[in-house]
Amino acid sequence: MLSNQVLIEKAYAGFNNREIDTVLSVMHPDIHWPKAFEGGYVTGYEAVKEYWTRQWGEIDPKVEPIGVTVRPDGKVEVQVYQLVKDLTGQILFDGQVKHVYVIRDGLLQQMDIE
Description:
Nuclear Transport Factor 2, Chain: A, 3 helices, 26% helix, globular, SnoaL-like, SnoaL-like domain-containing protein
């Protein structure tokens, strides 16, 4: 089982390198993932793959974790620096946000954005 820090690092590195299978390897099969730019959630591997494939066809996000803490309720909070550009290189968002994870059986089961 991966530590929270290693789990988070693997997930973000996979995302930034557009390696969907790497990220899915640290996700629970019933992952509940937010559609950050659309609202709502997708659930499960296929839905995440479809969402990210569509998203990466429209925008170019890079998300770097800068701090990881475990909240009193057991959720893992990841402070991230996020740079999102459109496909022409125009910056759409440049700043920090919090990603909050539920980890089950050593895998990411849910992510929320604060």
